[in-house]
Input
Amino acid sequence: MPNGTYRTIFSPFRHAVLTIALLAPFANVTGAEDRAFVLDTKGQKVLLVDLTSGEIRSRATLPGSPSELLRSGDGKHLVALDPGPHSFTLCCGMKPKGPMTATLLDAETLSTNATVTVGHGMPAVSFPGFTMLATHSLLVPSVDGRRLSIVLAGYRSKKPEETLPREIVTLDTATGEIVGRVPIERTPSSSWRAGDTAEGLFFVAGEGGKNPQPAEVLFVDLTGQRIVERVTVNGDIDRAFLTPDSKWLYLLEPGFPSPKIEKNQDGRIHVVSVAERRLVSSLEAGSNPRGFFWDQGRAQALVLADGPPVPKGQVRLGEVRFLRGPEIRASVNVTPQPHLLRFLDDKAFVAGASAVSVVSLEDAKRIEDVLVDGAAAMDEFAFSKDRRRAFALFSGSSRLSILDLEAPRLMGSVTTGRGGVKFAKAFGAAMLSAAGTAASYGAGMSAAQTQGRSYFTYNVYNVGVAPPETAVVVRPDGAVAYAINSQTNDITIVDVEKATVISKEAAEARGMFLFPDGKRLAVLGKNELRLMDTSVNRPAEPLHFEDSSAVSLVFTRDGATALAWGGKDLYILDAATGAVRSKVGGLMSVSAVLFGGDEGPVTSPNALPPTSSVDTPQPTPVP
Output
């Protein structure tokens, strides 16, 4: 994400899908933000909302079903992107039934400047057994933020007359002019801008089958509208990461991991120099590598892996590789089966099979191990603000463990959630699953027929308790911790020093985080938001959101105002008191919110902050 100019923000919880793109670098905003742009996809409109009064200053009607809202680098223009209708074909994947369109709006008046036909085909996302339309476009903004380059997947059909071109289309966001089109043979899966240059980087995954093709990195001149270099990379690459300084593109090849010495094939890290436009090294990545985890303070990437297979009866350790530039700086042995990594100041904490390894980021050395029973099932690791305590959450066993980082030692563990509720859910699941699947199928089909679509989706409800979505948050004074158990729809409140449960409060919960002053905890559910006063630890009555599948909450950068939205509802909250200032009515489906401060663009993510309560940026593996 070079220079913060384009960010795609994903929630760590599985329900979030919103993507917001920026077309210019962040500005240092110190003044109050008094307005927000709201995209209502089903309502086919954009609203400019006053954050103080909740009044709608202006509105614009949009064609189609726009799903993304962007703002130009100078803040004067908005772009609403509609991917167009698609259907799935067994032979050829996602088939465009109409073009992608971009509606250009004046950010002050919301008057429509132009509606532009961009081309055909959003990228698709494939999983074992099915393919679906991507939830966001592949975008590359120009340095000045005026131009936007968009990847279009086109369509390859067995009927030549149905074939649509794959291309990278560059749009002038002020005039609506199509600056150029660069034909491409295959659809990229990732894209970036090459720092403060006019070049874009596009990663194209390799293809197997009868006509195998290697992976490629395309260097595209987005001013001259041509491909200036192709870098071919052999290997089954499953993720790509551009360092924030735009110097190095790391490509991870998983290899073929096996516990048997004779069958194991280690993965590799392929390093592309952006300045030289060439592959400069291919490095050993260990068995079953996972990452990358970016350490901003030391400009290095960390990659987790299993160590080499060992004879039966011996312990197979894990490994952390420190990647700096085109070389492996160091490889450090850690606890077996490492799977989770978190940063705290100059240390990395790596959870594995039965322990958490503490590793020095400066010296690239293993400092110590903290034994934690069942650490292989740990899926969250957070810290108190005073850096004295750590909190390990285990979704499978509904357990929260508290670690003393000064000793270091395990202080104790508590069980989250209400066991009786979980049992009742499991007991009723067998009878509800078939009916739930049938009802979802019927609702999906009905909606598709109503909207004239030739496709629809529906949920398959399995027998058993749903997989938990968990989070842990620590009060700023470090005395109290809060843990979600979404299987039982409650928050477990824990006395940290005593490692005991204070109470368990019922609340539909899929995510949570603290208000800026730490005095209130926001608990986000599927269709409700609860606020909890952290001094008395009791949830208030919920705010309800009609037709919501996931409630989102975000604050203005000055910390004065919060916006909560989901489905048909949008609330404006006072961030100091949590009180509702106003509710914006007349909406059908809020899909994006973008703040409108006068000093530059700002994201409005449908994403929860890191579960860690410490200000240290936490690493996120490349999806």
Observations:
- The first helix runs from residue 419 to 451.
- The mean pLDDT is 81.
